[in-house]
Amino acid sequence: MPELPEVETVRQSLQQKLAGLKFTGAQILMPKVIQTPDPDEFKETITDKKITKVTRRGKYLLIYLNGGFTLVVHLRMTGTLVYGDKDDLVTKHTHVILSLDNGCHLRFADVRQFGRMWLVPATSLSDLPGYKDLGVEPLGEMFTRDYMKKELRRRHARIKPLLLDQTFIAGLGNIYADEALHRAKINPERLATTLTPREIALLYHAIQDVLREGIENRGTTVRDFIDGDGRAGSYQELLRVYSREGEPCSCCGKEITRKKVGGRSSYYCPACQKA
To answer: How far apart are CA 243 and CA 266, in angstroms?
Structure first.
């Protein structure tokens, strides 16, 4: 699933292309992608709307339109949102095609068909299921060491599943949680309440470091991720533990291990990240 760095990379690539353009129509090839309103109303509402800006909240893309509307997009597992020429080949798994007044298209494609779109009044964003319960932005001002310390002290949960909880930290997912825990030398099965102040500080900085590096390298492409220009990311070349089972740890040389924690595969070094 695209995580914060991937969604931010899509946002950055689309912002420079879309700002100031106007939607002139919509083709909805898979109606279930549109969560609200119904497809006919979606087409009518989005037509002739001008794009004012593209932002991000957690793993959600937000395309603000004039008239007080916002197009909300969640890529989920394999979704892509790509800007291109209207004459470009329509790929097999393209589900929504949004026409623009410069003759180009914004196309949403999704092999797994889990991605979703909502077209809502901007004033209703706080009522959107899932979106309304998002936690702090890990690169925002509200994400502080004090916040981490306070939240970890009151949550009796293993640290890896907690980091994936979007009501705790918005946008962090499996890849960057594993990378941050490795840098902080914290085992993914540790209870959050057992972390020392020093470990909390190390984890706090590790989370921000791996997210910033992910953005700088235009995201991680393990299988499907591409940005708004259709380009893959390169951070997969710098990953220290994720998807590197059996390879030597870059810190100690011991083999990276994979284990299910909270139902998700977790990659870690059993020597550096002792239980």
So the answer is: 9
Q: What residue segments make up the domains of the chain, in order of their start? A: 4-133, 145-268
* Active site positions, annotated: 2-3, 59, 264
Q: Indicate the fold that domain 145-268 takes in CATH.
A: Helicase, Ruva Protein; domain 3 (1.10.8)
Give the Cα separation of 272 and 243 in Å (integer): 17
Cα 242-211-4 angle, rounded to 5 deg = 90
In order of 97, 137, 168, 189, 208, the CA distances from 63 in angstroms are 15, 18, 24, 38, 25
Contact between 205 and 188 under an 8 Å Cβ cutoff? The reply is no
CATH of 4-133, one of 2.60.120.470, 1.10.569.10, 3.20.190.10, 3.90.550.10: 3.20.190.10
Q: 206 to each of 63, 91, 214, how far by Cα in Å?
A: 30, 38, 12
What pTM was computed for the model? 0.96
Tell me: pLDDT of 1 over 90: no
The tens digit of pLDDT for each residue in 169-205 reads: 999 999 999 999 999 999 999 999 999 999 999 999 9
